[in-house]
Amino acid sequence: MAIWWKEGFVKIFWLLFLSIFLTACNDYTEEEREIGYKGKARINPWLAAERFSQSYEGEVKSLGSWEPPEMADSIYFIPASILSNESFTRRVESWVNDGGHLVLLIQYANAESSDWSEAEPEEKIEPVLINMLDRAGITLTTDGISTEAASASQIDFNEESYQVNAKSRASVKTFDSEPGVFASVESGAGRISVLTDARLFRNRWIGDNEHAEFLDALIQASTYVGDISFIRGSGLSLWRLIRKHLWSVLLGLFLLTLLWLWKNFSRFGPMEAATDGSTLRGYDHHLEALGDFQWRLDRAVALLTPLRAQIVERGQRVSLRSGRRDDDFFQFLADRAGLPRERVFRALAEAAPADSAIFARTTADLQRLLQVLH
Questions:
Q1: How many CB atoms lie within 10 A of CB 74?
Q2: What value, to the nearest 5°, has the Cα angle with vertex 100 and ends 155 and 57?
Q3: Backbone torsions φ then ψ of 216, nearest 5 degrees
Q4: Cβ-based neighbours of 271, under 8 Å, separated by 6 or more
Q5: pLDDT of 10 higher than 70
Q6: CB–CB of 158/112 below 8 Å?
Q7: Distance between CA atoms of residues 351 and 141, nearest Å
Q8: What confidence tens digit (pLDDT) does each residue in 63-101 have?
Q9: Window from 96-100, 151-155, 226-230 with minimum mean pLDDT
Q10: SS3 content of the chain, % helix, strand, coil (to 5)
């Protein structure tokens, strides 16, 4: 009894010791760190701006890659790095001249940029875009500008001031303004606006200061009411091009396949009348084979002599009844059978056929003569 009690006491002691030791090892500090949004907001930095814009007339379009603006679009928010060639800038410039409002976003405009990253993305602006802005009266500088010179806490637009928190390594200005983070001029019948810090409209910051009010002012400055488009992707998307243009290629291949089938398979072609195969071809082959067999046995003369004698006998009787006994006998038979005189003469007078084909033809001519003399 005492031994059992001592063993139980030892087990309880060790359990208490291990519990205290393991509890002391669980001393840690939890730290929460924001890494970004979930769902659609993670891949679309303009999701909040798009939903904000749904209160206006017209459709709000979220584009994953470059699409040229249409006449139904009243305002176009686009990363400036997308306009990287003459074709893109020419189409955009033509749309602006017809009344569209182009909003160019310089830095932090790419969908791959993280709102929680300290790194500043490199945005490459092509000379064709710089030239387009120069023609509109806007000067864009993307290097050599200090951070302080490209910062702004207030943006003036259409005789209104908006409190913002903008900072960019690029600067923009018009001919009568100082370098800053925003510039806007009328161009043709439309307008071109340039914002160097696109974070003002991204999901994380659009609710700060008066960023949403500034977005509202840009939309209201459009020449006409229409669709509002936000581009979040790159210049060109291979998969989008495939989805847009592959159907026409597949349709062409399908039609080409149908044409090939119609040409090469009779059941795909026009209907033909059902006709029974002629038995003459089979009889001719049989006759040729039989003649070849008899000729090889050297029995041609023996087979032809009875036929010739029968034809001569019948021919003389018929010519006598017809009153043509004194005429050329071979010509008389040729006229009756519808054969040339030479063939009739060869069929009746040739000693022995030179080969099996001539033997078969001679036999056929003799059969013909025998028929017409009945």
A1: 22
A2: 85
A3: -60, -40
A4: none
A5: no
A6: no
A7: 112
A8: 888 888 888 889 999 988 888 888 888 998 899 998 999
A9: 151-155
A10: 50, 20, 35
Largest distance between two CA atoms of the chain? 162
What is the token pair recorded at 339?
Answer: 């054969």
Beta-sheet strands, E only, within 26-66: 60-65
Concatenated DSSP letters for 96-121?
HHTT-EEEEEEES-STTS-TT--PPP
CA distance 338 to 372: 10
Q: Write the burial class of residue 109 (CB in 10 Å: 0-12 exposed, 13-18 middle, 19+ buried).
A: buried
Q: Are 200 and 206 in contact (CB under 8 A)?
A: yes
- Looking at residue 103, its pLDDT comes to 92
Three-state secondary structure call for residue 357: helix
Residue 143 is given by DSSP the state S
| Number of alpha carbons in the 13 Å side-chain half-sphere of residue 98 | 13
Q: Are 140 and 70 in contact (CB under 8 A)?
A: no
Mean pLDDT value across the chain: 78
Measured between alpha carbons, how far is 170 from 199 in angstroms, rounded to an integer? 14
CB 138 within 8 A of CB 164: no
Cβ neighbourhood burial of 237 (10 Å; 0-12, 13-18, 19+): middle
What is the share, in percent, of the chain residues with pLDDT greater than 70?
74
Q: How far apart are CA 134 and CA 132, in angstroms?
A: 5
Separation between Cα atoms, residue 172 and residue 80, nearest integer Å:
13
Strand 190-197 and strand 182-187: the pairing is antiparallel
Higher pLDDT, 310 or 286: 310
* Confidence at 215, pLDDT banded by 50, 70, 90: very high
Q: Contact at 8 Å (CB) between 337 and 369?
A: yes
CA dist., res. 130 & res. 123, Å (int): 13
Residue 140 is encoded by which pair of tokens?
């864009």
The pTM (predicted TM-score) of the whole model is 0.55
CA angle 283, 288, 294 (to 5 degrees): 125
